[in-house]
Amino acid sequence: MIRPLFFALAATLSLTSTVQADPRADYVDFCADCHDANRLGGTGPALIPQTLKRMRGPKVAAVIRDGRVTTQMPGFSDDLTEDRIAALADYLKTPLEAVPPWGTEQIMASRVMDDDYDSVDAPVWASDPMNITLAVETGDHSVSVLDGDTFEVLDRFATPFAVHGGPKFDPTGRFVFIMSRDGWVQKYDIWALKQVGRVRAGLNSRNIAMSGDGKWLAVANYLPNTLTILSTEDLSVAEVHDVKGKDGTPSRVSAVYQAPPRESFVLALKDVPEIWEVSYSETPNLAIFAGGLAHDWRIEGPVAQDTAFPIRKITTPDYLDDFFFDQSYEHVMGASRKGTDGLVVDLVIGQKVADLELAGMPHLGSGITWKYKDTTVMATPHLKEAVISVIDMQTWETVKTIPTEGPGFFMRSHENSKYVWADVFFGPNRDVMHIIDKETLEIVKSMRPVPGATVAHVEFTKDGSHALVSVWEDEGEVLIYNAETLEIVKRLPMRKPSGKYNVWNKITFSEGTSH
Ligand code: DHE
């Protein structure tokens, strides 16, 4: 990074002087070049509390002082005193005084389509296209494209900074869309092994959802309080909805999910006790939202069929942050903000139909289902309690609460596997992976593949024969297990690998994976 001489001189002099810390000035001198004058990100990520809150304790100050290895972020310990570093770190954690407009015009201006991208007629590789698996590596913000049979790495490409949530495949499994917390959406062509383009759909975003017909991508935003709907074809903006509850209260969007049989997106809202359903049907059929609820519909934006996304707002008895759907997508399970219980809303009638016993802050987004006796059960880990809840999806009763060696984040299984894999993400036993028998609901094995290292998040191959487990460390790896014998058959070195996503399991909505 080249800094004008007078800045360097001024900074060096101030090390020994008694100059009062002025974090705003230090931001302009040392950070703005890469992170933008408004702190919303440039070549470096956004430096706002919404992004930085994940870096707990003194970590922000440590990055300013020491930099980040293998990135372009230098350390500033030669330029700034400890006091000034601490003041700058505090400044970055204060909310922006004003959020700049980020509507259609700004989003479209951010869009970059790659000049060197050429479409191909067939994959440029010979692997099974349905068994491709992506591994997100958060250590250096990249994705590895794996052949699901040989586990050969076909490509490794750069993503935007800090990817969150599952990448979403189009229904053919050829294109994948990846979102970062700074609101960037990347389109990548798996056949061509090339990025197609990127667009910044929000300033701080949560996750994305693909419409069942593959035409639209919905982006849930915290900043601004909007839902952005993009065309999957060219990442152009179809609509940007201001998100305001029935009484006009603006709200952040906690998450957006697709409900393919309903031809809609379903939104969890952070600041109003409502569930929203946004139709992407070309002929929105109000009859499917039976029960005289047509008055809940509101057409916003242009009325033309191909650009209007009608919204239905359902009032809920509580704020719901996180969702899980049954396979029919009629019922949505929601976790209450208090983290003490949950409820079930029937989307057809727009009403709560059951309460759920869910203490310990369930992470419903990573819940899974399987056939159990004569019913279907759903299981979810809890972020604040060392248990897994197993719930009957017909009666909504808790079938079993399975004690674990610590709170977990992710769970996975596969139709062809008799086991559920559940990590222990928090606490001293975060190196443990539990194996649960789907019939007995007992933990049958607790594995510690790399003692002391966090192991988390599992994905299966298309046929369920192998399970891929992340060793979630800077110099980490993805361990390939034989899913039957539970033996490791291969190890792939990776940089802090997080989620893995198999094309087939995702596009067929396998019951063993999150949707
Ligand atoms: Fe996630 C998925 C919410 C923190 C890694 N996370 C999701 C989803 C939601 C969610 C709603 C499902 C959306 C989807 O995939 O489309 N996550 C939240 C939070 O509210 C929480 C607790 C706090 C926050 O700051 O956002 C949170 N999540 C984290 C992390 O700290 C993790 C471990 C590391 C990171 O990268 O930020 C993390 N979340 C993930 C991953 C998925 C995810 C890897 C996708 C899982 C999958 O298999 O689909």
Q: What general form does the structure show?
A: globular
The tally of strands reads: 34
Characterize the biggest β-sheet.
Answer: 5 strands, antiparallel
Strand order of the largest sheet: 1-8-7-6-5
EC number: 1.7.2.1
GO molecular function, one term: nitrite reductase (NO-forming) activity
Protein name: Nitrite reductase
Domain Cytochrome c: 18-96
Structure in words:
This protein is mainly beta. Among the domains are: 16-92, Cytochrome Bc1 Complex, Chain D, domain 2 (Orthogonal Bundle), CATH 1.10.760; 359-515, YVTN repeat-like/Quinoprotein amine dehydrogenase (Methylamine Dehydrogenase, Chain H). Strands 1-8-7-6-5 form a 5-stranded antiparallel β-sheet. It has a 5-stranded antiparallel β-sheet with strand order 13-14-15-17-16, with no helix packed on it. The longest helix is centred in the first third of the chain and has 13 residues, at 23-35. Bound molecules: heme D (DHE).
Features:
single chain; 515 residues; mainly beta; Cytochrome Bc1 Complex, Chain D, domain 2; Methylamine Dehydrogenase, Chain H; five-stranded antiparallel sheet; globular; disordered N terminus; binds heme D
Short synopsis of the structure:
This protein has 515 residues and is mostly beta strands. Among the domains are: 16-92, Cytochrome c-like domain (Cytochrome Bc1 Complex, Chain D, domain 2, Orthogonal Bundle); 359-515, YVTN repeat-like/Quinoprotein amine dehydrogenase (Methylamine Dehydrogenase, Chain H), CATH 2.130.10.10.
